[in-house]
Specification:
Elements lengths: L4 H6 L13 H38 L36
Length: 97
Amino acid sequence: MALTPEEVRNKQFTTVRLREGYDEDEVDAFLDEIEAELARLLRENDELRQRAASAPAAAVSTPAAPAGGPSPVPTAVPTPVAVPVVVTPTETAPLPV
């Protein structure tokens, strides 16, 4: 269920006897904050959807321009080097007969 600012504004809480429960003024103030933030987020989402809808058309029609900074330096791929392996016997073993 999508929550709207109007639903937040119109939400009714039941009151309890003998002041048990939450302070109604605090709840009302918090709901006002939630309503304002929810309205802001919904506007922002609409703006972002509009931007996203128009972005692909703009990206296809205009090629990307190079940045004003220096061009990136290509990275060199290291070439494998053969290393000779020298085996030195540490002890002379008799040859099998």
